[in-house]
Design brief:
Number of strands: 8
CATH topology of the largest domain: 2,3-Dihydroxybiphenyl 1,2-Dioxygenase, domain 1
CATH architecture of the largest domain: Roll
Largest sheet: 8 strands, mixed
Strand order of the largest sheet: 2-3-4-1-5-8-7-6
Length: about 140
């Protein structure tokens, strides 16, 4: 059910070094890194399956640490249904449903704010959709 989780940290490089050193023996390693919107680094760590499921990024406000949790969705229709339910409930939508190619091709998600201010996402990775399209 959980797809990935993100923590906002004060120093991404120091946090990556900590998690790799301490949890490396359990298989945790950096899978990918990319520049964040402000030029800082965002890092995706993961285990032997090679999927970045634990993300570290810079916090927007040094005094606040927003948590990000993503739930797996079985398809794009489920992501769209989460969006519709959020809108109907009057929930703040951070990013409406769309493909986020900067994450990877086929990444389709919606981001909403929970009652405590956390960034919560429903995501469908679409790898199967991409493979089907490639095969015709």
């Amino acid at each position: 059910m959980l797809d990935h989780i993100s923590l906002h940290v004060t120093d991404v490089a120091a946090s990556v070094a900590f998690y790799e050193r301490v949890f490396g023996p359990a298989g945790l390693r950096t899978i990918l890194q990319f520049p964040g919107p402000d030029g800082s680094t965002v890092a995706g760590l993961g285990g032997p399956d090679g999927q970045p499921r634990f993300w570290l990024g810079p916090g927007r406000d040094p005094g606040a640490r927003e948590t990000h949790i993503a739930f797996s969705a079985p398809d794009r229709a489920a992501v769209d249904a989460v969006h519709a339910a959020a809108v109907a409930a009057g929930v703040e939508v951070l990013h409406g449903p769309r493909e986020f190619p900067e994450y990877h091709p086929g990444y389709y998600g919606v981001f909403v704010r929970d009652p405590d201010g956390n960034n919560v996402e429903a995501v469908h990775h679409g790898f199967t959709d991409i493979a089907k399209a490639a095969l015709g």
